[in-house]
Design goal:
The protein is an alpha+beta fold. It contains 13 helices and 7 strands. It has a 5-stranded mixed beta sheet. The protein has a two-stranded antiparallel ribbon with strand order 1-3. Strand 4 and strand 5 form a beta hairpin.
């Protein structure tokens, strides 16, 4: 039954709407309102037709019986007959309703919905056609009211109408109909004009936003290409600096004093740190550009592999690491491996002297995502720095105390965002840290189609 209703509805919509009209136009909604009316009016008309036939037969109202069949036939033609334009279907539909209204007024007087139909047709014409057709319905309503007024005056109106409406009563009732029709003709188009203006403004803002997003994406690609190119160009002179400093030390080391050796050490160390910064910058630029292949990944195996790589640090610090049951997800495994490795390395590194690291990794299933937590008992981070730690090259400690260049958490944040998630920290100084991040169950990995 459901399939039959969908087929019936789709067929009428295909006949009574124009697919080429965009949704941002009021004509689109006018056509769909017309089609919806036809869809529901057909079964309602069939239901109403049965008592209508009975009444017409009982009171020998042959004209009303004929009118009901003509109206139903017209509506069926509007709904199902091929080769008729949408505009013509609207004219036939409203014309059939007009003829029914006039017949009802003639045969039933106020006991039928004739006057109500006349006003309803005015409203329906205004919401399905242009305002100029509303003026036409106002004129037709006025002429119909005048016709029945003349019929009452000269005595050729139906007996029911003459019994219910003396001429003065008819003038009072019909003038109200004309007044309401005129009010509708002037007010309803203003509503649609306002809606059209709102649609146009919305479309303009949408296009403007799309242009802004496109420009922003272009700028981001340009910045990533710049970072990638500059990183490659900088590494070569840095290698030369280190090589010549080492040659200078090896060849002339015996002729140099301690101060000169100190200078050489600082130059080599600075070149090495700059090279490390460039490598991290390259890795940062590759997230979402080079690392985009999605694979079904068992995170338990992935984290086990990371722990094997960190075996030396784990043994050195005698760390206690607890890994919960992690899910299998569709991810970019290269990026996720970097993410967990950064967080676990930080948990091992940022510890007080002589303290044994205690680290836990857990996963919690939510409605739309998995939430991961990496907790430690390290030195912690003051709340005022919680947002800053995810910035590029942001360090909270000197290199003498903790090694690193401040890129690990920035890279981690970009990886999480690549997978449509969020990352945040809960921590206080000397009370350990918990890094929490989410990954959607049905996420779309963000890619940067940069060809560099």
């Amino acid at each position: 039954m459901k399939k039959l209703w969908i087929t019936y509805r789709s067929f009428i919509y295909s006949n009574c709407t124009v697919p080429a009209i965009p949704q941002s136009s009021t004509y689109y909604w006018k056509n769909h309102l017309f089609a919806t009316t036809v869809v529901f009016l057909i079964p309602l008309s069939i239901i109403v037709l049965v008592p209508g036939i009975y009444m017409a037969y009982k009171f020998s109202l042959t004209g009303m019986l004929l009118s009901d069949f003509i109206t139903l036939g017209s509506i069926l033609a509007v709904a199902f007959m091929p080769g008729i334009s949408v505009f013509a279907r609207k004219i036939i539909f409203n014309g059939a309703l007009y003829s029914t209204s006039v017949v009802m007024l003639h045969y039933l007087g106020s006991t039928g919905p004739g006057l109500l139909y006349l006003f309803a047709i005015t409203v329906f014409v205004l919401v399905s056609l242009d305002q100029r057709y509303g003026y036409l319905t106002l004129l037709l309503n006025t002429l119909i009211c005048i016709y029945f007024g003349i019929a009452l005056h000269y005595g050729f109106a139906s007996s029911i109408l003459e019994k219910e409406y003396p001429l003065d009563s008819w003038i009072a009732v019909s003038s109200n109909l004309v007044f309401l029709s005129g009010t509708a003709v002037f007010l309803i188009p203003k509503l649609f004009n306002g809606l059209q203006s709102a649609f146009e403004k919305q479309e303009h803002l949408k296009n403007k936003l799309e242009d802004s997003v496109e420009n922003l994406n272009a700028k981001n690609k340009e910045l990533e290409r710049f970072a990638y190119t500059v990183s490659h160009d900088l590494k070569e002179p840095l290698r030369m600096v280190r090589s010549f400093m080492e040659l200078l030390k090896n060849k002339y080391g015996k002729q140099l004093d301690d101060k000169a050796h100190t200078y050489i050490h600082h130059a080599v160390d600075g070149a090495k740190r700059m090279g490390d910064n460039i490598d991290d910058l390259l890795q940062y630029s590759r997230i979402g550009r080079k690392y985009t292949t999605i694979e079904k990944t068992d995170l338990n195996r992935l984290v086990d592999g990371i722990l094997k790589n960190l075996t030396a640090d784990i043994k050195k610090t005698q760390a206690q690491i607890s890994i919960g049951d992690l899910p299998t997800m569709h991810l970019v495994p290269v990026s996720i491996k970097i993410l967990f490795q950064n967080l676990l390395t930080n948990a091992l590194k940022y510890q007080s002297d002589g303290q044994r690291p205690v680290i836990t990794v857990e996963a919690k299933e939510k409605d739309t995502c998995w939430q991961f937590e990496v907790s430690d008992n390290g030195i912690g981070i003051e709340p005022r720095y919680h947002d800053q730690v995810f910035a590029v090259f942001k360090r909270l400690h000197t290199r003498d105390k903790f090694t690193g260049n401040g890129m690990g958490l920035a890279i981690s944040k970009k990886i999480v965002e690549q997978h449509g998630g969020n990352i945040w920290i809960e921590s206080n100084q000397e009370q350990g840290s918990t890094f929490t991040f989410t990954i959607g169950k049905h996420h779309i990995v963000k890619k940067n189609n940069d060809s560099v």
